[in-house]
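Write out the 3D structure for:
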Amino acid sequence: MTGVGTVSPCGTNVVTTWDNVSNGRSGIAEIQGFDAADFASRIAGECTDFEPLQHMAKRRLRECARFIQLSIVASAEAILNAGFEPTEEEKERVGTFIGVGFCGLEVFEDTCKTLFEKGPRRVSPYFIPSVISNLAPGQVTIDWGFKGPSYTHTSACASGAHAIGDAFRWIQRGEIDAAVAGGAEAAVTPIGVAAFASMRALSRRNDEPELASRPFDSGRDGFVIAEGAGILMLEERDRALARGANILAEIIGYAATSDAYHMVQPAPDAEGAQRAMKLALADAKLNPEDLDYVNAHGTSTPMGDVGELVAIQKVFGAHASGGLAVSSTKSMTGHLLGAAGGLEPVLCVLALRDGLIPPTINLDDPDPVGAGMNLVPNAAQERPIRALMNNSFGFGGTNCALVLGAP
């Protein structure tokens, strides 16, 4: 990992995002993008400071739904941050893998309104290319000329993490030399919020937005929907060393599993998540006690948080209540859905770099299931980190675990 980029509710770039996350500042507020007065949940993690016209021409906006715009900007930051300048020949061995849970919901909503009110002849010819998911990586390849494999992973809230894991495998097999990988999502729209609210999945702590996302806390009442993008620049190690790149961290393990159990509920004891964590550790050739930190999926839902805590306890044994730290950065960023597994590995890279474990804010009354565990309540903890794990789980029982190590 030689470069990182992000647009998030906590900042429009890596420096601002990490400053807010590491200091426990929430990016959750009342929804600004539309009138949510009649909605059961009226709060979200929006990228309110994101101005696409600062990064691209106005005429290009009609080609790119918001999730693509976020992908373009975060990818550019990661590539520039890495100082990555391949030759034309080398570009043929650079892949682009960006996960997306939904696609351009806001464009779908506007276009349906146009179709029903003005008729089919008024539908924009840019509708299809502006909303299909694979244009998140596709537009990045067009900007940078990367001609290796390019496609989108769609696996609900694990999309971004699966994209990173797949990029890792492509490089590991020797089929490409580098990859842009991560996730992008922009589902804070009327239909996105209304649909999740109707499932009773969202927090309704509308009067205290910054306190609403509270993973592992007994008072949690659902997740807070959010938008953004998180992108990594990945390179084969010898290539990165040869060009004198600043190596921030290394991916050393990856695994993916399925619960094969239920549409939205995790399997009992989060059995599928347990297997993903165990397989990722085995892939990294590490023992549980070799890890210092787990960046949890930790969405702030009553059932999901308990399942993950139980899974961590079963996988890490005594170490889960010993030297292992576990926190959820969604307490500050909200849940970026398909982009969560892109943003959170970025935050993990920065945690490794700085020896700083970000907190779980709003953790005032820990769930009894987590008794004895270091859930990093409300303030970051300084400590050296040798290796860590990032968990990403999603509807349909999809599970992903990444293991990162210091360079």
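Residues 66-82 form the longest helix (17 residues).
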